[in-house]
Amino acid sequence: MFKTAKISAIAASVILATTMAGAAQADDTLIGSCIYKFDDTFMTGVRINMQKAAEEINAEIELVDSQNRQPTQNDQVDTFITKGVNALIINPVDRSAAGPLVGKAKAADLPIVFINREPDNKVLKDYSKAYYVGAKAEESGTIGGQLIVEYFKAHPEADKNKDGVVQYILIKGEQGHQDATLRSEYCVKAMKEGGLKVEEIGSDNANWDKVQGHDKMKNFITAKGLDAIEAVLCNNDDMALGVIEALKSEGYNTGKDPSKYIPVTGVDATAPALQAIAAGQMLGTSLNDAYNQGTAAVRIADAVAQGKEVNDANIGYTITDGQYVWIPYVKVTAENYQEFMKK
Ligand code: GAL
Question: How many angstroms separate the alpha carbon of residue 117 from the centre of ligand 1?
Fold first, then answer.
């Protein structure tokens, strides 16, 4: 009720809204937020945590689904500005389209916080009220590679053809997404740095999606045969869970027969992935911290809207280069998964 009243009051006057944009009063911030698509497991976690973080500081947040279409998102940003929001939090559909969005925010003197898909540094530097909250994809890539190194050190029998080389498959996220590019690069690097000899026998994009992960893995099983596959590294958990479904349908990775197990890694630490780790079906993942990413984004948006300085004390997170907050990834295995179950 409170929310509706506030939105219609603001919508009633664009002139009022424009003057309010830079100078919201305490407890009176309205944040407009676009999520690249609602049907994404990890971003659903971020979205829920943004809502909780807004409630905690008594701010309003309106979240909309950009349905994986950048033109839709551009229109949504225009609508938010017309409506008189005090700040924007944007998860771009296409991170290379962030420039015009910054232009819109700048023209309205609104803070704009990007999340999850990092705009070019030049785009951010162009506007002092533009920020990015995210995680360094290199870290999660490295953790994925390290998980495989540790596994092969503990299980030399996992080198099924005894050739001293790990034959692996790489399941990647979306083409052009920095998380896909960097996680892919750094997981291979970490395997090599950990002393493994590796050979990529297959790699494909599955767009963060469980069904696509499943289908791509089915193709690899048909083309290569299960005996030839010694590890599967995935850029996120949904795709890893799809891979595990494909393996399960062949009697592998059921958590019951250790001789029929191929180590699979993911990224995110979603609830179903933690369950798969607990069940002995998935080797490990890394926590992509939806709680802290969502909370930091909301706090920055609110602070700038309230005319406060964005510093570590006001936000509760370390601000790097004046415009960035980096939330670390954490390695998650069968040893520590319980710690992440309620996050
Ligand atoms: C990644 C995450 C993926 C997906 C993607 C969307 O950080 O690991 O699961 O949510 O962001 O941009």
Answer: 8
Query: What average pLDDT score do residues 299-310 get?
Result: 97
Instruction: Give me ligand 1 centre to Cα 13, in Å.
Output: 37
Between 6 and 219, residue with greater pLDDT: 219
Q: Whole-angstrom Cα distance, residue 233 to residue 286?
A: 12
The two three-digit tokens of residue 342, written as one number: 């309620």
Residue 12 pLDDT > 90, yes or no? no
Contact 329, 288 (CB under 8 A): yes
Tokens read off for 191? 């395997």
Output the average pLDDT for the chain: 93
Ligand 1 centroid to Cα of residue 208, in Å, is: 7
Residue nearest to atom 10 of ligand 1 (CA): 42
Please list every protein residue whose CB sits less than 6 Å from any atom of ligand 1: 40, 42-43, 116-117, 179, 208, 236, 267-268, 288
- Residue 221 Cα, ligand 1 centroid: separation in angstroms? 25
Nearest CA to ligand 1 atom 11: 116
